[in-house]
Specification:
The protein is α/β, with parallel strands linked by helices. It contains eleven helices and twelve strands.
Length: 362
């Protein structure tokens, strides 16, 4: 019996994991491949899950905590995808502030499932953030958060240096020298995940690794890891916007941009700030990050007087301050736009101490 290929995708918040998975899954699907996706985050309303599902891809989610702390749930989602679609490949995207995946996910899956899997761990890194991290004197995040980032990179089978289209040729050349010197024994790919050729190359490398062996485990301080997790507050909220004319999508984007601007004006670093906007029929995902780059926006089709906006945020700030900023943003948007805003659900918290279900060192 052939083994299931599990492409475990890790890497820091905002590194472009979901975009790459969506492009890769669609490519495989359109070329007669059977594929499934498992998303993961600490919150219960996930932008990524709804976005991937909207592309017609078989999708499951593990919510309310990372894969390692919900191992049986992850196993159950894998089995569900296997029953429903018999996939050749499953992409499993871990929480962007999670690490130690070799000991807590890969080794337990291989140990407890009689070698049913070929597992490859790709760790994504936004090339711009990676350059800043390697320079060491321009840190965006606190030391405990940078500790998580460092450990993610150390355990990769493949480091996918992503978003290279945002650098000039000269900048990329210099970045490659720095990155190659820092990671001498790890496969490094340079990728623009919006390019089909780039994504195909990543898939080819993953397919050729064919690794079903236990992995060396990290030397990791869980107190530092837990402190870094706690410093990145989580917020999710569902907001409905109703306008008198057909400008609800425009108001929705104004709210998104104003929230992003408010976070940056207060000097809080953004792990990820993701939105899903929909009108009941069509959906669009919009993302912002600490490193400025204007997102590509296409809302012309949203000629409607009501939209729903789902917000997922991981910000280096206290949860109470994060909630205060979204409250202020909503109030200001209502005042400026003379619209009606209905807040359906909201949660804001700091993730708890990571407690893996299993940890199998090797």
């Amino acid at each position: 019996m052939s083994k299931l290929k599990l492409f475990l995708v890790g890497g820091f918040l905002g590194s472009g994991k979901t975009t790459a998975i969506e492009k890769a899954a669609k490519y495989l699907y359109h070329n007669n491949g059977k594929v499934g996706v498992i998303t993961n985050d600490q919150g219960t309303q996930q932008v990524d899950t709804l976005f991937i599902k909207s592309q017609g891809i078989a999708t499951e989610e593990v919510s309310g905590g990372c894969f390692c702390c919900n191992f049986e749930n992850l196993e159950g989602k894998i089995e569900s995808l296997k029953r429903e679609g018999k996939p050749d490949v499953i992409f499993a995207e871990s929480v962007g502030s999670c690490t130690d995946l070799a000991a807590t996910i890969i080794n337990p899956l291989l140990r407890f499932n009689s070698n049913q899997f070929e597992i490859v761990l790709s760790v994504f890194a936004d090339v711009r953030l990676l350059i800043i991290f390697l320079q060491k004197n321009k840190a965006i995040f606190y030391d405990n958060v940078n500790y998580i980032y460092e450990k993610q990179l150390q355990e990769a089978d493949i480091i996918v240096v992503n978003k290279i289209d945002l650098l000039t040729d000269r900048q990329l050349k210099e970045a490659k020298k720095m990155i190659a010197a820092a990671f001498k024994n790890i496969i490094i790919l340079y990728q623009n995940s919006l390019s089909e050729d780039s994504v195909k190359h990543w898939l080819s490398v993953c397919n050729n690794l064919q690794n079903s062996s236990l992995r060396p485990s990290l030397e990791i301080d869980y107190d530092l890891y837990g402190a870094g997790e706690a410093e990145l507050a989580w917020l999710d909220e569902e907001i409905k916007i109703v306008t008198k004319n057909k400008t609800a999508a425009t108001v929705g984007y104004l709210l998104m941009k104003n929230f992003n601007d408010k976070i940056l004006e207060n000097n809080h670093s953004i792990g990820h700030l993701k939105y899903l906007i929909h009108n009941g029929k069509e959906k669009r995902k919009i993302s912002f990050s600490t490193i400025p780059s204007e997102p590509v926006i296409d809302l012309d089709f949203f000629g409607t007087n009501n939209v729903t906006v789902l917000i997922n945020a991981r910000i280096q700030v206290l949860p109470a301050l994060l909630q205060e900023m979204i409250d202020d943003t909503v109030a200001e948007t209502k005042l400026v736009s003379q619209c009606r805003i209905i807040r359906k659900s909201m949660s804001s918290f700091s993730p708890g101490y990571p407690k893996p279900t299993h940890r199998i060192p090797f």
